[in-house]
Design a protein that fits this description.
The complex is a heterodimer of chains A (about 325) and B (about 240).
Chain A lengths: L1 H21 L1 H32 L6 H19 L8 H31 L8 H22 L4 E2 L8 E5 L2 E4 H23 L1 H11 L1 H6 L4 H27 L1 E2 L3 H16 L4 H20 L10 H15 L14
Antiparallel strand pairs in A: 1-4, 2-3
Chain B lengths: L8 E10 L2 E11 L4 E6 L5 H8 L7 E6 L2 E2 L5 H6 L2 E4 L11 H8 L9 H11 L1 H5 L10 H13 L5 E5 L7 H16 L3 E5 L3 H7 L2 E6 L2 E7 H6 L1 H7 L4
Parallel strand pairs in B: 3-8, 3-9, 6-7, 7-8
Antiparallel strand pairs in B: 1-2, 1-4, 4-5, 9-10
Helix pairs in contact in B: 3-6
Classes of the chains: A mainly alpha (about 325), B alpha/beta (about 240).
The structure holds adenosine-5'-diphosphate and magnesium ion.
Chain lengths: ~325, ~240
């Protein structure tokens, strides 16, 4: 069986190499799209991995928190700030930064509230129970979105500048893609700092590794779990803003699909592993972009979801601990 | 240690359950300031559950626990540590993906006097030179004995008023067992009261001032350690003498 996996990877690499040789500039442009997709997925994937790391729970409502973040962002940008394509750059930046904070705080508080209402009362219950309430939460959030915005798409004016940051030899990098990275990178850097360097981060890592022991060290375990959900929700809120800005429209079920992709990214990287979630998200972002964009023998966008979930299955069969996960008895 | 002074720790009729299973059926024990007190008893007698009741991980359903004159029966685990009770638990419960140094730092998580930590860590390394050699190794990859030392070191890093040790000699080679018991006496001399759970009843009764024998969730005997070591029932059942 491992030879089959090796063969698949080899085939993939050959396909990429031939596409690269046929049009290096075009290939690079597609890779930029992949990087941008990956950045959005990373923000959402991190939330799955953070929560799984601390509770061993797949928070199925997470994608919907992201979706609500997107709707909040779209509303803030277009209705509250009234940004239009004619707004000045200064005002645009101000509106985006304010919206970022509001979406992050809103989704963070929402996610922590979900934990408090739907998961905490089931802390001692069999693992299936919180999984089912998670799915229930997901439906509730989607219905809240329908009640708020209706079943159709909520669209955003095309506010991001479409001009080129640079363009040389057929390779172009546009401002809208750079802005996605400019929003994502500081959020990720702040997360790394938080988890690696702060007291709260230490408490999170300890709680993830042994909850009873963490309590014995003087860590308020419940508060640490709330805090983790707050952070995960905040990341989803940032993801929602970036998604709304970049893709321009979303609706009640946008979080379902993107959530599944981000969850796959988290598993691909090694669920519970933070750098793994980012790596997995970038991989999936690239795979999607290459699949949908490359010209030579690419399956095309109809196949994206099948390919993503085939990857999920392959990972679960051949390397359940993911790309960066450790092979530990407790699986994380 | 006059009989009238309020004990440091006092359990009164403690009954603790796991779901519907009653593990403790009315435990009353005391630890006075400066004492080493040992709990001995067969597997499943309720020794570990007694410690879990005290440290707040498993609150009693009936009875009271008082520490330094305050009722801590329903106090949350993370607050119990802050009041001065630290533990090296059954099964060690280290943070497997943290290094030895990080684990020891976690022991001092709730302390305010951060400047004193390096000195305390050196003290732990002096007690267990083996840990100093492994300071940057992940705790989950160490041998059982090394993990045991790390767990004890981590509890010491809290600078507790009361140190609770659950079978500290478990899984250790005899030379290390001796070292652990020397450490217990040493730490006690420096002013820490100790509640010691042990399978190795012989050595526990040697270092302890007083002891309790637990049987199926009840205190079967309570006496000075010397007297217990001489008791025929104790000898027969727990000291392996006929
Ligand atoms: N997690 C648990 N769930 C159910 N019963 C338990 C659990 N832990 C211990 N017990 C039961 O409680 C009783 C006391 O156990 P314990 O305190 O661990 O004893 P000891 O430490 O003296 O060996 C035993 O009958 C044991 O089976
Ligand atoms: Mg025990």
């Amino acid at each position: 069986m491992p030879t089959v996996a090796a063969l698949l990877v080899a085939l993939l690499l050959v396909w990429l190499a031939i596409n690269l040789a046929k049009g290096p500039a075009y290939f690079t442009n597609i890779a930029f799209i992949g990087l941008t997709n990956g950045a959005v997925y990373a923000l959402v994937a991190l939330g799955y991995t953070l929560v799984y790391g601390i509770l061993e729970l797949i928070n199925f409502a997470h994608g919907d928190v992201f979706m609500l973040g997107g709707l909040i962002s779209a509303t803030m940008i277009s209705a509250v700030f009234g940004v239009t394509t004619k707004s000045s750059t200064g005002f645009l930046v101000l509106a985006i930064v304010c919206t970022l904070f509001i979406a992050m705080i809103g989704c963070g508080v929402l996610n922590a509230a979900i934990e408090f209402v739907a998961y905490r009362p089931l802390r001692g219950a069999p693992r299936l129970a919180p999984l089912i309430t998670a799915i229930g939460m997901s439906f509730i959030l989607e219905n809240i979105a329908i009640g708020w915005k209706g079943p159709g798409y909520t669209a955003l004016p095309n506010v991001l500048p479409k001009g080129d940051v640079f363009s040389a030899g057929g390779v172009t990098y546009t401002w809208e893609k750079l802005i996605v990275v400019l929003i994502t990178a500081p959020v990720l850097a702040a997360l790394v700092y938080l988890v690696q360097r702060t007291r709260q981060g230490k408490a999170m890592r300890a709680t993830a590794q042994d909850r009873d022991a963490a309590a014995m060290m003087g860590i308020n375990v419940n508060r640490t779990i709330s805090f983790t959900f707050l952070i995960a929700g905040g990341l989803a809120g940032a993801g929602g803003l970036v998604y709304a800005l970049y893709f321009g429209q979303l609706r009640y079920d946008s979080g379902y699909q993107l959530g599944l992709i981000a969850f796959t990214a988290a598993v691909l990287g090694g669920i519970g592993n933070l750098p793994g979630a980012v790596l997995g998200a970038l991989c999936i972002g690239f795979i999607q972009a290459f699949n949908e964009g490359l010209r030579w023998h690419s399956p095309g966008s109809d196949w994206t979801e099948s390919i993503v979930f085939s990857i999920l299955i392959l990972i679960l069969v051949f390397r359940p601990e993911g790309l960066l996960g450790e092979r530990t008895p407790e699986g994380g | 240690m006059s009989a009238t002074a309020e004990p440091l720790l006092k359990l009164d009729g403690v009954q603790t359950y796991y779901g519907s299973i009653q593990a403790l059926k009315g435990i009353s024990i005391e630890v006075h300031e400066g004492e080493i007190v040992t709990l001995i008893g067969a597997n499943g007698a309720g020794k570990s559950t007694t410690l879990r009741s005290i440290n707040g991980l498993n609150h009693p359903r009936h009875g009271t626990i008082r520490f330094r004159g305050r009722d801590i029966t329903q106090t949350a685990a993370h607050d119990v540590v802050r009041m001065g009770i630290a533990q090296s638990p059954e099964g060690r419960k280290l943070f497997p993906r943290m290094t030895v140094v990080e684990n020891l730092e976690m022991g001092a998580f709730q302390r305010k006097d951060r400047h004193a930590l390096p000195e305390d860590m050196e003290r732990v390394f002096t007690l267990f030179p083996r840990l100093a050699e492994r300071r940057n190794q992940k705790a989950g990859t160490m041998s059982g004995g090394e993990q045991q030392m790390c767990a004890i070191g981590r509890a010491l890093m809290a600078r507790p008023t009361l140190l609770m040790l659950d079978e500290p000699s478990m899984g250790l080679a005899p030379i290390f067992v001796q070292r652990i018991f020397d450490t217990i006496v040493e730490v006690n001399k420096q002013g820490t009261s100790i509640l010691l759970v042990e399978q190795n009843a012989l050595m526990a009764l040697e270092v302890a001032n007083r002891g309790y024998v637990l049987e199926t969730g009840k205190v079967a005997m309570a006496d000075d350690a010397k007297a217990l070591a001489q008791n025929d029932d104790v000898k027969r059942t727990y000291l392996g003498e006929i």
